[in-house]
Amino acid sequence: xxxxxxxxxxxxxxxxRVFDYSIPKKWEGMIQPGMRVAVPFGPRxxxxxxxxxxxxxxxxxxxxxxQPLDLAPVLNEELxxxxxxxxxxxxxYKVSVFHAMLPVAMKAKYEKIIRKKDDxxxxxxxLLEGKQEISWKEAEKRNLLPALYKEIQSGNAEVIYFVKNRxxxxxxxxxxxxxxxxxxxxxxxxxxxxxxxxxxLVFHLLQSNNxxxxxxxxAKKAEVPxxxxxxxxxxxxxxxxxxxxxxxxxxxxxxxxxxxxxxxNEQQTAMKPILQSIEQQSHETFLLxxxxxxxxxxxxxxxxxxxxxxxxxxIVLVPEIALTPQMVERFxxxxxxxxxVLHSRLSIGEQYDEWRKIQKKEVKVVVGARSAIFAPFxxxxxxxxxxxxxxxxxxxxxxxxxxxxxxxxxxxxHQCPVILGSATPSLESFARAQKxxxxxxxxxxxxxxxxxxxxxxxxxxxxxxSGNRSMFSTELFERIKDRLQxxxxxxLFLNRRGHSTFIMCRxxxxxxxxxxxxxxxxxxxxxxxxxxxxxxxxxxxxTECPECSSNHIRYFGMGTQKVEEELVKLxxxxxxxxxxxxxxxxxxxxxxxxxxxxxxxxDILLGTQMIAKGLDFPNITLVGVLSADTTLHxxxxxxxxxxxxxxxxxxxxAGRHELLGEVVVQTYTPEHYSIQLAAMxxxxxxxxxxxxxxxxxxxxxxxxLALVTVIHEDLLQxxxxxxxxxxxxxxxxxxxxxxxxxxxxxxxxxxxxxRYQCLIKYKREPNLFSAxxxxxxxxxxxxxxxxxxxxxxxxxxxxx
DNA sequence: AGCACGCCGACT
DNA sequence: GTCGGCGTGCTC
Length: 800
What we know:
This protein is α/β, with parallel strands linked by helices. Residues 540-699 form the Helicase C-terminal domain.
């Protein structure tokens, strides 16, 4: 008997291990490790992943696998191994890790139905209105469950559990000629004279060249109803069958074929060691540090070309917001149909189909966001992470992995190079490059030798002092007007959407807070309501102060919405487009706005984060950063780094082509080194400066971090538990490690639940992970019963 | 995570 | 007496 060891689809501590199942004879040899199966688990049936086959088992009451859910493994040997490693490194459950590796369509849906038995009672017949079965949901809705319970207990009905496979393939109907073309002429005459449409169709087939075509398509082209095709199928002239079809998100797009560009000297120098690593099939991590516009992408493209030439495959990771059609175009343009694209804006079905192209080895390259790092290639030749410093490579849900770590792990397995590319590398990566752990490659010149645009920093305190209370400094405003006149384009950047950040009473200083969270509420103009961005609580806008009844309520802070209103008022002749989460939710909105701007139908593009990347339009000659401080004062040790990166990134949008560009940065803290050095485009000095700050604060890259957050509705309980965890950790880690806490989280209450945390800073702590696991085990009873929640984030990016 | 089982208080 | 509340422990 063959035994399958299965990881079941139950993310909990008690079930985070293999369960043995016997494989029924009919599937012996067919069921393999890496396949999904449906298995009985307690009274239900659920999904599971086979991780190993075995000859024997110690389990006495073993059950059969119900059925396989795949025809071929969805996780290969490498990914199963990688799963083990990730489980250890992120302290999460195996199933969660497996799900993170696969398209969402492979996550099972469960369904329960109540089915009547043969010898059912009359009463039950009445309940089910004569039907055989009813879905659990339906019964619940119609409040039939109490009555049905009794019927189940007395054996008149039973509960049946289903595992529903959501991974549906799209099918299309195609027809094919079964006779030789020269026979068609005869057939045309043999058809009855009243079969006008059939004749028309045969005539069309005579003229067209190819044998196989999609049924719906053919009907349209021949201008006949579908029934004509059916008739010919019936007569045996056409044969009909279903063919699997991919949902192609880029179906209606033509990609202009491009060929390799000649490389600059710098690019060639950078290329050499990469090619060497590809050729020698040795793993090495490269940090490609190249200023904006230095041609990193061309290096990627030519390295991939070499990999493909060797018959191997490539993964390219790009931050989610940078996955614009422009970016996709560059890869599809070079490698055509060899490219699959994976990101979360595709539908579940589209994601599944792109994934299947990879699994079936129909593509050589995948370009995608974070989770594309798990692309099931078996002969990886290179992994590229563009904009390496982006925080979106860290997953903020369980399993909290970093795509960079996974990339390097896979690079080791496949013995292939990993390239981390950035104009503003993360401190972690640059430090590793300095130490020689990564191989540093530098592109210091822009491709067309164009100088970086001059950046001027405007002190907004000065503006205020000289009586300018608007959100535009005189300098920025004059320049916008100048561009309008010259018919050149302006990009305005503000890292905050919405209207106003908070409202405050001028008399007593009251700021409206969310009653469920420790955070001020945001004013939304469109709905004219106050909203909490953390729990979604909404309430009306007060007309008088709840504290002192004054009516001097004023709006503070600005979002993109407010800036837009202001611009319309000040520059009524300007054509403005706004781009932020609120204007890009609908599918394709992103592309439409950019297209609109690119074609010159707007003068000013106003937006958040998402316009900082990839924009490359020749007519942009002015970039304005309305408030450089927004990211700077967050309670996050990476705040300065993020600010520097963002400013550098945004500045790079101006003057990329013939026209010269300039950048205006508005700030209340012009003396801060991240703003100063970003204005001077001096990464190296910023790196040195920031490194000394990190050293003083004992932060990465000098230390690793682990963050434990305790959440519960009872404050006392939260504090007690966090204290206990803290002292337990203290006795389990070495003297070299630093333990901070317990302290309240930066947002101490969300959704009426208090949050406390402790932070561990460490260098080498072999016992830390097992200590953290012990904490989870110890509090497991309380977590499941008492609503206590403990989260562990290894190397957190979001400290909230 | 779900689900059954089992033990207690509140009604028919 | 029975119904149904939720604490406890198990799932190959």
